[in-house]
Predict the 3D structure of the following.
Amino acid sequence: MNADRYGEILVFTRVVACGGLSAAARALSLSPSAVSKRISRLEKRLNVRLLNRSSRSLRLTAEGEAFYAGAARSLDTLDEAENALKSLSNSPRGLLRIFGPPAFGYLQLAPLVPEFLALYPDLRLEFQLHNEIVDPVEAGVDLAIRMGPQRDSSLVARKIGGSRWIICAAPSYLRRHGTPQTPTDLLSHNCMSFSVRTHRVHWSFKENGHTVRVPVRGNAISNQGEMLRQLALNGVGILRISEFVVAADTAAGRLVPVLADYVEKEEEEPIYAVFHHQRHMSPRIRVFLDFVQKKLAEQRRHN
């Protein structure tokens, strides 16, 4: 419904409700002549007379009565829709579908869910976890979590955090094969990589102010960070992975960081939430992203 049609119908229903043109004009902050013109335009467009008007009285025609009943219901429905939307804005509700990498879901999002749902009890969360890259609309989700630089210009990408890299191995592996002292020492070690990220076969380091790229190789790869973590814990090889995946293991000594002096402490892989462009972001998406971004930033400050 365009603005002109809406305005005409609103004026018509207000005239009927107020019982006259002058009263409706006062209620709408319009002049009586403006009200009269809008009624006339509506009647002309519908090609029917809606009101019998005189200087002293105003009565609905039979056609006017039928139109008023439907118009009033339609305006009531619009008012209800606007009020419902305002209510959603104040207290988001409904289902929010999120697609993302399993490790990020388990280790970063899951611990935040209890507090988030306590703040927004009318929201429901559905997590679909997989390492593949999907289009949110095609996957039937509201947003997708992606790691690394984003090149898809058709999507809105909002950075919600970042993850530092760490290179580590189990004490059992290091006892058998020795601890690498320089990046090039990795050429003689079993280095495990992500099968879905082929660029990880070269690991980057900082040495004497220069970037050094080492072409690593190994006999175990996986598309799942948790699988690589378990392989590392069992002494299969050396692993380069997001710090949050193995933070508990390094703190407990189950995995030992190596080559820390050659890994840039400020180097991190950005984490984005991507979704299709919307003129007005859904309140469900907005509150979730604001909450997660804030919590991840707090974690980084405390680490």
